[in-house]
Design a protein that fits this description.
The protein has 182 residues and is mainly beta. Helices cover 14% and strands 49% of the residues. The chain contains two helices and 13 strands. The strands form two sheets. A seven-stranded mixed beta sheet has the order 1-4-7-3-9-11-13, covered by helices on one side. The protein has a six-stranded mixed beta sheet with strand order 5-6-2-8-10-12, with no helix packed on it. The radius of gyration is 21 Å and the shape is globular. The relative contact order is 0.20.
């Protein structure tokens, strides 16, 4: 019995090596240019890194890139559709959301998800960033705008300024290089 164990393990390893680890990744690229709202911008991601740059102007420019690999092409494509970004302006706040639209349940099989949400916005708007496992970066001076970030496991980095800062990071870090007193 002991002599057979290495053969069985070798056979199992060869069978696993012959299986594909994942199907082809599904990719998504979405760009929008929208009128700047009057109060603020909220970005809600899931697995996404979020990077925001403050630039003069009267528009908000958004790019959402995602790449999802799953056990099957069909599953990867289904997830790309589930996380498709939405853009809703309500009461002076533009909300950019790329979160799953249905109850995820449990995933049996391989799953790898990565994404980036890039935003350019004018100063003097409040900015709220909310992501589960991505990093959040703010570059620039929000002027009179306030900065709020809520991350579960990502890092928050700021190089700039705002009227007020509030960061809630469950297991992430905050690094700030403020360019003026707040």
């Amino acid at each position: 019995m002991i002599a057979r164990t290495p053969r069985i393990l070798m056979l199992a390893a060869m069978m696993l090596a012959a299986l594909p680890l994942s199907a082809s990744p599904a990719k998504s690229h979405d760009e929008k240019t929208l009128p700047a709202p009057t109060k603020g911008v909220t970005v809600e991601g899931s697995f996404h890194d979020v990077e925001v740059a403050v630039k003069p102007g009267d528009k908000v420019r958004v790019t959402v890139d995602m790449e999802i690999s799953a056990s099957t092409d069909a599953k990867a494509n289904e997830l790309i559709k589930e996380y498709a970004p939405t853009y809703v302006e309500k009461d002076g706040t533009l909300t950019i959301r790329s979160r799953r639209k249905s109850n995820p349940g449990f995933n049996w099989g391989f799953l790898k998800m990565q994404g980036r949400i890039t935003v350019e916005l004018p100063p003097d708007l409040d900015l709220t960033l909310d992501t589960a496992s991505g990093d959040c970066v703010l570059n620039g001076d929000l002027g009179k705008g306030k900065f709020f970030a809520d991350v579960a496991s990502g890092e928050v980095r700021v190089k700039g300024a705002a009227a007020e800062f509030k960061v809630d990071a469950a297991s992430g870090n905050f690094t700030g290089e403020l360019t003026r007193p707040t």
